[in-house]
Structures are given as structure tokens and as C-alpha cells.
## 1
Amino acid sequence: MKSIKSYHLLVGVLLIAALFLTGCEGAGHKFVKKTEFKDSDKIVLTFAGPVDEVWATNVANFSCYEKPDPDIVLTIKEAVLSPEKTKLTLIFEAPLNTGEAHILSTTNIMSEGQDMGAALLTVKKLYFGVLMTIFLGAALIKNFVFTKYLGLCVFFGCSQKRSTAIGMGMVFTIVIAFAATMAWALYQFVLKPYQLTFLNIVVFIGLVSLSVQGVDTILRKINPALFKAFGVYLVLVIANCIAIAVPLILADNEYTGWESFSLALGAGIGFLIALFLMACVREKLELAKVPPSFQGLPIAFVTAGLFALAFLGFSGLSIY
Amino acid sequence: MAIKEKTNKQLFVDGILKENPIFKLALSMCPAVGISTSVMNGILLGTAVLFVQVCSSCTISLVRNYIHPKIRIPTYTLTIATWVTVIDLVLAAYVPVAYKAMGLFVRLIVAFAIITMRLEMFACKNPLPKSFWDGFGMGLGFMFAMMTLGFVRELLGSGMIMGYDVLGFKPLLYFVLPCAGFVTVGLMMGFFNWIEVVYERRKKG
């Protein structure tokens, strides 16, 4: 039970840190204090002092585009100034792609009759926010087990007891983080430059097996006690299709190094959560009276179906 | 291994019925849950698996005397990965729409336990013709199970089979939702177990 509590603590600390650290940065002009995205179709500008209402609410004074395509100008539907005249909300016609940096240019900013000069502002999410989005996406919103249906063999095999579930989840997270980072490096620096991407599958499956062997050797030498407890799960990692799916996904989406790492970490933690939840239910099921034809796997599948239905509730969740 | 001498026909039939990969052995469940929403998906993925299983079985069976026992598992994995790459590129080139619908699952055939298991238990000990029939039976068994699941889900979910409207109404939309895969597989496994239980009871009494 002790290990369960420390795991809860870890997740809690991670989430709180994420809440504090994320947010948005921006600016590029001395009079503009902060620029940030709000909802999916708004940009909020915070000024150092009050600005003229006539200037601020005229939509023609602003123009905005996504950094990669400067020729597509996004239409601003409305500009709303807050009562204290320091916060301006620009409402766009279409939802913004908040993953990309946006460039917002204004005409000369008028503040209490003074001309503060024109501004060219960059609006973007903090990189940490992008990483957290990927992490949460992999762990909850698109949980690999309950919404992508991967890794089921190991999922049903290792979810009979809570201790097994935690051990398997931990080992899997370590191995997948290790393997995904290596897969990213190999893909970006070897496979792509030499146009060998058609070898993805062969290379990645080899890499996963190698990582398992590597973690096995390192763990055996560094911490024999831990190896004794968790070593048995290492072999099972290769049989888990999430281990091969993560490198393929990060290659398909051209993720950067840190993005790959957070995807892998999310996949691992998501798998751990799924295993743990399932193990809790299955321990209770042992005591329940299940019809003979449903004993064992069939009832486990039906339970997993209910979990999958519950995990649908996470779809559309966006914090950052 | 105490595999008794079976004829080719027996091997073939066993793969489909007695040792059906999904319903009996409960291996490679991921696609069975993930993309069994229609009969067509089942046929396509089933064909891919059949191809990979037969080709890998034949390859391993041909070179079985040259593989060092210590490195046999990596050899299997790489053989499978090679054939998966082949079918992946072929499907992406000739049926791009269906390939997209199946998503990652074609490439994930590489991690299917059923294929590695057949190589380890059968193909590395038996000559080419036997391995071929074993692989063919297993592949067809997988395809049959996927089609059965697809049939049930498509019929109950959207009232259609292979895209043709047969019922004229939609009995239970829940079954085509992605999350119903678990429940359908669970119910069908329970159903097959129930048939077995009833059969045993009849035989006794």
C-alpha cells in the first residue's frame, strides 16, 4: 500500500507543478504587458495603462496570422475592451490553432491621447503547455488502453492483482520513455536524413527489444533488489503493442525530442492508471458471484468496456 | 512438444475452430476490440494477418535448420517485421482509404502474439507444407473471428452488413461506438463458453 500512496503523491505534485508553470508568454512591445490565448478563438492583450476605447474597439487596427503562413490573415470578428480599459479581448471568426505561434500587428497604440507606437506581437503557448497537452492527451484523453485499444494482451494478463499492476506499469513507463527517446533520435538523425523511413517498423521493433535488454542489464547491476521484484515484467514489455505504437506515432507526427519524451511518459502513466483501475475492480470481482460462462476473461472484457465508456468523458478536455 | 502427427487438413481446421486465435486462445485482442466495427475492416485486416502469418511461417520453416536457438526470438521478430513492412507498403499504395481507416493496426501486426507463438511452437519444427497449412489455418481463423465480430457489431449497431442496409432500422447504436468493442468481445466469449457448458451438461446427463 505504501507504494500506491507515493505514486498518488507523485501524480499530484506533477499536476500542481503543471498548473503553476503553464500559462502563456508573449509581448514584444513596451506598452503591452501580456498576450495570451483564451478559449479556442480569443486572444487577450493586457496593456500597461488604459488605452483609448475608440482605437481599441476598431477591428481594422489589428491584423493577425499564424507564424508559418503569413499570407493567410485571420479575420477578427470583434474587439472587446474591459471596463478598466487595460484588457482587450480579440474574438476571431474561426477557432485558432493554438499550437502554433501567432503574429499580431497593431497600428499605433493610443493611450490617453498619447501615441505609444505600433506593435508587432507574438502570441504563443508556453512550450511546457504544449508538452503537458501531449502528456495529458496520451495519459487520459486518448488513453492507449481505453480509447485506442492497444496493449490489451498485457493489460488483461497483468491486471489481476494491484501489486502486479503497479510493477508492470512502472517497468513499462521506464522502458517506453527510454525507447521512445532513442527512437526519436534514430528517426531524426539517421532514418530521415538517409530516406530510410520505410524501415521504421523493423528498426523500431529492434530498438524496443534492445531497450528492454538494456534496462534489464542496467537494473540487474545497479539495483538487484528492484530487479528481483520487477524483472519478470520486463519480458512482457516486448509483447505490448503500445511499446511499438509510441515510436510509430512520434515518427508520423514529427515530434521533437521533448514532445516524444512526454508522449512516452503519458503513454506509460496512462497504461499504469488503466492497469491499476482494472486491478482494483478485478480484486473485487474475485469475491462476486459471476455466472460460470462469464468467469475469467469475459467479465474482465465487459468491465473494461464500462471503463472505456467512462474514459469517453475525457474527450474534449483541454486545460492548456 | 507433443504435437501428434496431424494431417494438413486437420491443421487447417484446428486453426479456424479448435485453436481460434481470438475466441479460444485470446491472443491479439487489440484489433478485435479496436477496429471490428464492420465486416469489411475484418476482411482487410484478416487478409493482412493471413499474409504475414503464412509468409513468416514459410520463411522460418525454410531456414529453421540454420537458426541458432539462442537468437531464435529476434529472428522471428525481424522476419515478421519485414513481412509487415511489405504488406504495409502494399496496402498504403493500393487501398489508401481503407488503410487510413485501419490506422496503426496494420503496422502493429508486428507485435501480435499469435504470429510469434505459431513460429515458436510450430514453424520452427515442421517442414514447409505443414507450416504453410498451419499458418493458413491460423490466419483464416483470425479473419473468421474478426468477421464474426464485425458482423455482430455492424448488424446490431447500424443495421447494415457490408454497407448494405438489411434491417432497415438501427437496433442499438452503442455497438458501433468504439468503446463497445470490449463489451462485444466479452459477450461473445461468454456466449461461446455458455455453448460449451450446455454441451458438456447434455453429454453428462
## 2
Amino acid sequence: MDRRSLLKAGVAAGAVAATGGLAAPAYSQAANRVLRFVPQANLANFDPIWGTQFVVRNASMMVWDTLYGVDNTFTPRRQMVESEEVSQDGLTWTFRLRPNMRWHDGEPVRAADCVASLERWMVRDLMGQMIRALRQELVAVDDRTFRFRLSAPYPKMLLALGKNNTPIAFMMPERIARTDPFQQISEYVGSGPMRFNRAEWVPGARATFSRFEQYVPREEAPNWLSGGKRMLLDRIEWVIMPDPATAGAALQSGEIDWWETPLNDLLPVLRRNRNIRMDVADPLGNVGCLRFNHLHPPFNDVRARQAVAWVVNQADFMRAVVGNEDSLWRPMNSFFTPDTPNYTEVGSEILSRPRDPAMARRLLQEAGYRGEPVTMLVGQDIPVLNAHGQVANALLRSIGMNVDFVATDWGTVGARRASREPRERGGWNIFFTWFAGADHVNPASTLGIRAHGDGAWFGWPTDPAIEAARDKWFAANNAAEEKAACDELNRAAMISQPFTPTGFYRAVQAWRSNVSGIVPGPLPWFWGVSKS
Amino acid sequence: MFAYVVRRVLATIPVMAVVALFVFSLLYIAPGDPAAVIAGDQATPADVERIRASLGLDRPYLVRFGAWLWDILRGDLGTSIFTNLPVSTMIAQRIEPTLSLMIVTLLLAVSVAVPMGVVAAWKQGTIVDRAVMAFAVLGFSVPVFVVGYLLAYFFALEWDLLPVQGYTPFARGFWPWLQNLILPAIALGTVYIALIARITRATMLEVLQQDYIRTAKAKGVGQRAILFLHALKNAAVPIVTVIGIGIALLIGGAVVTESVFAIPGLGRLTVDAILRRDYPVIQGVVLLFSFVYVLVNLVIDLLYTLFDPRIRY
């Protein structure tokens, strides 16, 4: 080959390569049938029972179906279930499944699959654990029917099976559901409207889902977790972007279609782009939490906890979290999510009355506080928690507390908060987190206000009054009884301060203007979403 | 030579053993608990304990180290605590983007920095020299992520010339592959260009003072031939050394660059694993990086013999 031939061959090869002709694209769906979505976090595992992170739940909602699903009034509606029957004494529940449901591997959905799935879920879920404690029998009667027999009535059965809090009672094939609930599943077969493309999964980078052609949606209109989950897209690509600035730029350039959690600092930039739409992501928002360790001084004395509550100015915390977007936060003088049926301000004067530093100092003195260090764990790698730490540090110092500010990462906080030792032996006094507002619409999933000592969430509060009020809610048979129980619970918790609410805030989601059908909710719903 | 190469390759074994011991011990004493991260914020202490036990994290140090070392010796890097995927699979998924980024960056940096350094030395004291040195100072001073954001803003958002983020595998075409790497490679290469350009200039200045250069000039050899055939070849050993050392810079810089440009490479895998305390992944990636680094040093040592025939092993 002479020099000219070589050059020609090189140019031709370059041209072919430059047009991408050396290899065909892997995916050939029309662009308007493929949605590129940036989730709130990395989908690092994919077992909604083993890993209870919200991002896992959100992805799982496409792949696995549920027996029931709550609508936007928190009423559980039938989903995989066709009918249910409860005995007069409330001890026997019989469920009949819809016909013609199939797993993604083509096998029919059977009652035995649901029994195994419930067995696994009950080990890990709070409400599931309550049902498990009452369960005398859980059996498949035939291929479409299964039955619970309980030792005492459990009025919240349908809510437990249809709630949106993690872990959700997702149904899996029996062979998969038999996996130990503390071990990960290794096969991702569901009966939901989308299939998980395991071969394309690159944790930390990408997860993709393809439409399950054999899925038969319900006839009802979709409403949160309930109704007909009609997929208008063939493929959904989750693109993991750890850097918010990159995600913002990618949304502006049209490289992605929908961003679940834009950074508040970037909202003004996104708002200026006429190709981008924004709205509140989840009307149920989030509840900020300043958590005390109830085992050790000074916060083993209720007066010390009350002292902090008397000076907590929720506006300071919330502005540190959401910036100048005042429409995104509001005071929360309650332990229940604002604008939901159980919201109550009964007994909340400690948060609603004018802030009282003098009262706080007096309470601290009465509690015997003499300037001992107070260890505050602050996860600096999560902006919301860092903001909380900065505000609380100044606040506690203002009432004379000697703050030992431990600036670390969330991984370390997660480990250290489990220590029950005193602060000088590696323990802690305060840490921060937030709860999904969806978890605070009723007492079922409000871990932060459980107060049963050793079994309680990190901080281990003990308060029989709180537990008694919570029991009343579970036993309640109607909305009025439930509301009364929540009032009582709120009053008890305001006195005891298992944690101090630092405010209620909402996040915003953003998407390209050619995407439609996005409905705000406690998690991103992909059914009904289309792209032009 | 062959015996030398074999000796050097064998010498990597004790180095890797020390690295393995160091990494394992460091992670063992580091604060943090993957079980707590897995369990999530809503977990009870009992849940965390059960997950820790199921992962084997409640076993004594020596038992865990022994088990890990035995697996390594059998070529098994373990399984990720979080993804339940083999660490070797996760590394394999991520190696192409990182390797591509490093190769493009290296090619870009060497092809730009070496001529820059040579010209700066040749034009010592002139405005060209000062401009190259000013660029070098700037390149050292501006963090990679700042360069990255600026490039993305202008070339992707303002002028719509290149994509903001992502990675396209080479198998899907040369141009799709390259266009995702241009901005990251420039961002990552800036500091590297600055480093190589400075070293090249300094070494060239020293070589240009040598008698044989004056002799070449006296014989009437052309300027270009003097610079690139005589001077540069003799200045090559320190330059190649710096390029080798710079591989470590590239590995470190790739972590930031991959985050800024959302490239699913080993850098991001490492950061994600550290934040979640995914011990098997951290251990596997660090072992890989140290192995690569040892190999790069070997290659650099062998390259010396090409540039300077007086060097023999």
C-alpha cells in the first residue's frame, strides 16, 4: 500500500468512526419513548426489603407491585387484590388476587408468592412486625387466595399492606421472597409495569427499566400508589449524577429530562430557562429533626431537652436549608405533617410561643447542667444536615451550652449514633436528620417519636405516655378516634421532646417542558408520564 | 533485561502485600459502619446489628483479614456489600471510562506540554516564555473542578458544541466516544500540561547550555533539529519520569473529573464506596490502583533505556 492509499483508508475509517458507524447504538427506541431521569441518590442496591433507602423504594415501585396502594388521601386502595373479606371478630382476613397477573419471567402470580413476600416483609417493617406478632396463620388457600388469622384485631391491616413508607410490602415470586430478609436478593423479577434491565445496571452510574408488555393495569385512574399504572414510555433510564451543578447543566442542555431533587441554590438559574418546568416534588415534604440522646446527661433530663426546644427558631433552620425560597418551608409546631388529617398543634406552646432564652437557661440550670461538653454529630457531606449543625451550634452556645461540634461524614454519624456509651467513651448527645413528611402523617411510621426505651430509635427515649397514645391510634376504628389519639400523642411528645422538630420544608423537582404527566407525590410516579 | 523485568514484576508481590495489609487495617480502624448505611436512617439498632452480623462485620480483625487475603490469593476480590455484585465485575464495568479518560488526557497533555516547554526554553526570557510560564502557574493554581465547570458552561451550555456529561463506550463509535472525553480531558489535563511544560522547559534550558548543542549550532544544524532531535532526546529522561509520576496525579484528578462530568469510572466508584464504607470495593480498587502504579513505574524505568542507551539493567 502506498502513502496515498494509506491516507485515503485512514480518512475513510475516520469518517465511518466519526459517524458512529463502527457499531450500532444499543438502543433503538424513539427518543420520545425514552425518559432520562436523575434520581435523588445512587441506586446502589435493588432489594426494597433489605435496603430501605427511598431511592430503592422509588425504583422498586416500577418493578414490583403491591397488594394495596394508598391514594392522595392516604386511603389504601386495591391494587393486586381483587377483593378482601374480614371476619366479624376482625381476626381473619381473606384476600383474593386479580386474575391474569404475571411475573416478568412469564410465570403466573400465585397466592403462595404473596405469602412468602409478606413473610419476608413482616420481619423488616414496623407495621409488619406488629402483624407478625399477632399472626397465628398465614396460608395460601388456593392459587388466588390467601388468608391471615390473627390473635387480636388489627384495624390498620390494609394501610400496612398499601402504605408508601419503606419498606413497602412488595410482592415477589416465592423463590425470591424466601431469601433471608437480612440478605440481598439476587434476582429482580417483579410483576410491576416495568422490567429491571439487570445487565445494563452500573451501580453509581446507570439503571434502566423497560416496559413490561404483559402488565395489565387496573381500570381506575392512577392516584399515587393506586389505580391503573399505565406506562406511556418504553424505557426509563436512571442516570446517577452526584454533582448537582452537572445535573443542572445536563437538564438545561436537554441531556436529561427530569431531575428529582435540584439543589435550591440552582433554582433561580433553572427558573430562567424557558424549556424547564418546576414544581414541588412532594407536597408531604420533610420534617427536620434535632435528635437527643436520652440516656446521658444533660438530655436524660427532660428539662434540658425542653430548654433547647424553647430557643429553637425554626425559621433559622429552614432558611439555612432552603435558602431564600420562603415558599418552600413553614413552621411546624407539631410532630405530624402539615396539611394532613392528623396534623395537630395540641400542647405545642413550647414551639409556637415567642422564643425564650431566659427560660431555656433556667431549665438548663434546674437540670443540673454546669457547662459539660455536649457532643453534636454533624454530617458535613449532606447539605441539609450541615445547615442544621451550623444553626444549632450557634443556638446552643447562645444559652451557655459547651458544644463539642463533631464535623464528620454521614457514614460516621450513622455508626456513632448507634453507640449507647457516654460522650467521653465515643457516644454522642445530639445528631440531626430529617424524616419524610409521608412518614409523619400518622403514628405508624414515626420512628422518631417512639419512646419505648431500649427498643426505640437512636436516642432511646422512654415515655409511657407517648406509647399509650400511639397504641390508641392503632386501636382506633374511625377518623375521630385516630385524631384524638394523635392530639394526645402530640401533647405527650411536646412535653417529652423525643426530638425537636426544626421545621417543615419541601423540595422542588424540575423537568424539560416536553415531558408531561408528572404528578407531585411522596415518590416520583412514572406511570402517566409522557414525552413529546 | 528480561531477568530485570521478571525481578521487578516479582517485586510487586511484597509491595501489594504491604498495600493490602495497610488498606485493610486502615479501613478496619476508620470510623463508619456499612451496616448503618445499609439499614438507612429509619432503622432500629437491632436491625443494624443483624445486618452487621449477616455481613460478617462482627468477626475479629484477624479472622476477617485472613478470609479476605485467602480470597485475594484465589483471585477473588470479594462481593460489594451494597450492590451484591462481584467487585471484579464492578471494576470491569468502570475501567473503560477511566482508562479512556487517562489515555486521552495523557495524549493531550504530552502533545501540548512538551512543545510548549521546548518553545519556552528556546525563547527564554521572551513574551512567549512568559506566557507559557503564566499558563503553567495558572494550570497549577486553578482546581480541576473550576476548569471543568467553565468548560462545561461555555462549550456545552453556551455554544452547544459538546455534551455536558456522560460517557459513551468506544464500541458505539469513535466520535461519540471522543466527544464525551474532550472537556474532561482538557479539565484534567490542565494541571498535567502545566507540570510537564515546566519540567520540559527547565530540562531543556540545562541541555541547551551543553557543549554538544553549541557544536551542533556551529556545524550549521537547523534550529528545529537541534531542539527536537538533539536537545529534547537528551532531556527526555526527567520528562518521562515526571509523566510517570503524573499518572498518580491523573488517578487522583480522575476522581474529581469523573464527578464533575458524570463519567462512570473508577474514581467515582472509589468515592461512592468510601462514603458508603463498602470495604470490599475500596480494597479492590486501591489494590488495582497500586498495582497499576507499580507497573507504570516499571514501564518508565524500561523507557529510560530507549532514550539513554547508557542505562542498562
